[in-house]
Amino acid sequence: MFYTLLQVALGGALGSSARFLVNIGAGRMLGFGFPWGTLIVNIAGSFIMGMLMVFLLERGARSVPFFMSGILGGFTTFSAFSLDAVTLYQRGQAGLAGAYVAGSVVLALAALASGMVLARSFA
Question: How far apart are CA 110 and CA 10, in angstroms?
């Protein structure tokens, strides 16, 4: 159990660091008025989760905790997503908040399915 917890902790440190860098980079490139970084991370994380589901879970790999709970758990940001949506709403931008929520959910689900399809094409 300790080894598994260590995998999750190390992966989480890497994932959260990557999320921070994506948020800063997206903000600098696209502006800080909309949570672009969070949107990008949630879509990319869902795509990668779909691929890892095929490559790791379906094959019984031992590194599942490191990659899925650790790296992707630290990288994806649905708690930050929730905060961003409420912040947009509280700023009086209800339409933009709704579009952000709908876009995040639909695109993340599509990215996960796409990751699975791509991963299966390699098998």
Answer: 28
How confident is the model at residue 71, as a pLDDT? Answer: 93
**What's phi and psi for 63, nearest 5 deg?**
-90, 10
Q: Are 87 and 22 in contact, with CB atoms under 8 Å apart? A: no
Check: CB of residue 88 under 8 Å from CB of residue 100.
Answer: yes
Sign of the C-alpha dihedral, residues 95, 27, 113, 80?
negative
The one-character DSSP state at 71 is: I
Q: Quick one: how far is CA 30 from the chain centroid? A: 18
Give backbone dihedrals phi and psi of 58, rounded to 5 degrees, phi first. -70, -15
The pLDDT tens digits for 69-105 are 899 999 998 888 998 999 999 999 999 999 999 999 9
pLDDT value of residue 21: 98
**Reported confidence tier of residue 106, pLDDT bands at 50, 70, 90:** very high
Q: Which single residue is written with the structure tokens 């990659």?
A: 67
Are the beta carbons of 73 and 12 closer than 8 angstroms? yes
